[in-house]
């Protein structure tokens, strides 16, 4: 069985977990506390970031973007309508554009600071960068969520899914990031019904169930986190 090195509240790891499930493939999950900089893990990915995907034969693919491309090239070609990266070049560009939007822009403005300040710092030693959360970073991230929700609503007003008529990597990446922020209770769903309706569609898919069962030790999720009806 393939192996996925991940962290439960890493949005990039969650994205690949969703991708694998939607494609119908399983992988053994190995949790990595990236701040510990485990030597064996750094040998797999010198950048020290999750996720990292390893095939049965030991072939290793680090990073959410390369893993998604690799899975499409090796497993997506025969899946027909279940393929998560469209065949048309213009459609593929749009999916990749939105992947960058969520895995880079959304992550940098929202997910990464919230998870670092509210979760990771709880487990990190002082020499690893741990300590009390920086409240200004948390306030900024919470503020940034709102215009990303409006953008999701704008996209879904024009399309069936974020990048077009079919479910794609774009939807799974966006949902992975929002699921982390939702765990922490920092998504103002009441402010945007359209974005909430789109997320409910994703949240109700079987691939999402393992994510909804994830728990951070000593930190319960928001009350509606695993409620499919919010």
TrEMBL record:
PANTHER family: GLUTATHIONE S TRANSFERASE D10, ISOFORM A-RELATED. Keywords: Transferase. Homodimer. One of its GO terms (molecular function) is glutathione transferase activity. SUPFAM superfamilies: GST C-terminal domain-like, Thioredoxin-like. GO terms for biological process: glutathione metabolic process. This is Glutathione S-transferase family protein. It comes from the Bacteria. The keyword Metal-binding does not apply. InterPro entries: Glutathione-S-Trfase_C-like (IPR010987), Glutathione-S-Trfase_C_sf (IPR036282), Glutathione_S-Trfase (IPR040079), Glutathione_S-Trfase_N (IPR004045), GST_C (IPR004046), Thioredoxin-like_sf (IPR036249). Residues 1-79 form the GST N-terminal domain. It comes from Bosea caraganae. The keyword Transferase applies. Residues 88-230 form the GST C-terminal domain. PROSITE patterns: GST_CTER (PS50405), GST_NTER (PS50404).
